[in-house]
Amino acid sequence: MSYAPPTPSRRAFLGGLAGVALAAGLSGCGTGRGAQEVSFHQSKPEAIPYFGDLVRDFNQQASGVRAVHDTSSGLSAGFARGNPPDLGCLNYNYEIVRFQERGAFSDLADLAEEARIAPSIQDLIDQYPTYPGRTSVIPYSMMAAAVLYNEEIFAEHDLSIPTTYSEFLEVCSTLEDAGVTPIYSTYADPWTVAQGLVDYSVGGSVDVAAFFEQLRAQGSDAGPDAPVSFSRTLREPLEQMLEIAAFSQPGAASRGYGDGNVAFARGEAAMYLQGPWALGEIATLNPDAQIGIFPLPMTEDPEDLKVRVNLDLALWVPEASNAQEPARDLLRYLITPEIADAYNQDNLAFGVREDAPAVEDPRLQDLQTFVDRAAFYQGVSQAIPRTIPFENYAQGMVTGQSLEATLRTLDEDWARLARR
Amino acid sequence: MTTTTKPTRRTPQTADAPAGRDPGARPPVRRRPRADRVYLWFLLPTLVLFTLSITMPAAMGIFYSFTDSVGFGEFDFVGLNNYLVMFSDPAILSSYGFTIGVALCTVILVNVIALTLAIGLTAKIRAKTTLRTIFVMPMVVSGIIIAFVFQFIFANTVPAAAQALQLGVLEESILADPDLAWISIVLVTAWQAVPQAMLIYIAGLMTVPRDVYEASAIDGASAWKQLRSITLPLISGFVLINVIIGFKDFLGTYEIIVGLTDGGPGTSTRSVAMTIFSGFDNGDYAYQMANSTIFFLITLTIALIQLRLTRGNARI
């Protein structure tokens, strides 16, 4: 990624001088008539007030640039019109990946160096299709998720945190025998099934990144009978997933994310397969709730324990932006350690720099060791192009549709997409 | 029908005829083209708006359906590939099956309820106006709000009531059952659509002359016989309109499903409109444009059938 700048020729030097002079003249115009505008797209609801303040601070400091905070949810329309935001700060998911792989983002290699991203976190970017030879996206914030559990209920029944699959099933049975609902599930919201039960089960025993690399390498030869397929690789962990799901409360099929937060905050179940994003609401609902987090064990070896991570926020500057320089100024401001660290502490997220400080929140302490060892994976649900309704398939699996048939459909969808 | 259509066809012909064809006997030769031009000016704003906001986007959509565009950036022409893949895509085929099935069920339910209410509300009863107002209310509430309210009812109220009454079957929310979730969509769509159909039926029933009822009553016809042999045949045009317009509308069901099931459980309630709409955000732009082109052709066919069946029907 690093490259040595070539020694400038005299011509380039003169050209550079002219450029500087021109830029000075233009910026003179800019300050005279009003600052150049940078649209800053950031729509993660929980972080909107926080970034609103940051943008205000930036605008007070910076001269000649004025950032405008765009919190609308649509992204495609801007790109389709050729008028995308100048700086994006969004979840790194497949919606972003499809812009990335088509070269819609400009090269940020120099800024990536300044950002000093930890290699294990940079890897997360490269696990999805990228644009060759370009640093399209700079990670900003990482979230780690695992099983949330009610410490009081665990203590009451004298349970310790399970580190193997059989221990986990034992914990569930003990709770059930004691009349406590082991797991609160919210099948009515498909994403909660995909990001919780499915991602934790698969990620706990399958090397998700390697699986998708092999799957993509197969190209259009994919299918249920190909050497690498959803049917072959995911069947076992998903059968385990169904075993775990059976410990959910009755009527889970008609409960949504909001219901889940309320019920878990009230102590109606011992465990809840959600991420740290739910902690804020749970704490509001019940400030006294003692919540801990542990990775879902899916094998008999405690060494295999891993947590699910996602790049909650990542930064990019579209190729089609006509304010790339000021956008980069804003980006540089956002990645300064004080600003980035403060954001991550405030939002229960992990820093992405090599020297990012550890999380302070006591509830996340247990996850820090996994993050430090890079014992993490990106969820299987996040690596599937969104045109395949994977979340709905996940919901189907837990509400009684055949696992085998669903995996077959998934394989066929994948192959069809590869052929298109 | 042929006798009624002929004159309507002939009238525009004479109106459009060039001035030269007119026999010189009529003095205001110049007036006619001037009047025509005025009408053209009336047409212009609508024509421009319609072209800009409907025709052109639709034409562009059809154009993109022959490419591999994801909605931005470069694209290549792929000929009919999108269409070919589409016809073997179970997700798309099942969304058509689901949408057409739901539309048919809803049309039947809506028309039965609407006609019953309309007959009741045109009879000699008290507080007719108040009752009509009450029954029309669902029409003024936005679909997404209706859907969210019913979502709560189906997910919480109904199962709770069923538990209290020990009704076994209904204790689990029907929204959570892949085989039954469609029923909730039919019920809620019908609840919202009944008033409009009812109003059309009320208007229809008011066109039936009182004296035919009186005559049949003298002949000893029962109320049921009157309904079957007099009312229904005389308002058949209104039934036709309600069925066709209703079917066309229900094919486009979107916000009710989003609010109730969001296509779930699994993919059991994904409508065509939802599938098309998801394409834009999922990078499936060109592919779903092909889907919407096919969908457009289907609705266009229905619209043409409607036009053909209702044209010149003097009763409407």
UniProtKB/TrEMBL annotation, chain A:
Entry keywords, A to Z: Signal
Membrane-spanning intervals of the chain: none
Signal sequence range: 1-23
Keyword presence, Signal: yes
Gene3D superfamilies: Periplasmic binding protein-like II
Pfam families named in the record: SBP_bac_1
SUPFAM superfamilies xrefs: Periplasmic binding protein-like II
Keyword Cell membrane part of the UniProt annotation: no
InterPro entries from the UniProt entry: Bact_solute-bd_prot1, SBP, TAT_signal
Superkingdom of origin: Bacteria
The protein, known as: Carbohydrate ABC transporter substrate-binding protein (CUT1 family)
Lineage of producing organism: Bacteria, Bacillati, Actinomycetota, Actinomycetes, Micrococcales
UniProtKB/TrEMBL annotation, chain B:
Pfam families recorded: BPD_transp_1 (PF00528)
Compartments where located: Cell membrane
Amino acid composition bias (Low complexity), ranges on this chain: 1-22
Record carries keyword Membrane: yes
Cellular-component GO terms for this entry: plasma membrane
Chain segments annotated as transmembrane: 38-66, 96-121, 133-154, 180-208, 229-247, 285-305
Start and end residues of each ABC transmembrane type-1 domain: 96-306
Main localization, broad class: membrane
InterPro entries reported in the protein's UniProt record: ABC_transporter_permease, MetI-like, MetI-like_sf
Keywords in alphabetical order: Cell membrane, Membrane, Transmembrane, Transmembrane helix, Transport
Any one Gene Ontology BP term: transmembrane transport
Disordered: region residues: 1-30
Record-stated family: Belongs to the binding-protein-dependent transport system permease family.
Name of the protein this chain belongs to: Carbohydrate ABC transporter membrane protein 1 (CUT1 family)
Taxonomic source organism: Nesterenkonia sandarakina
Classification lineage: Bacteria, Bacillati, Actinomycetota, Actinomycetes, Micrococcales
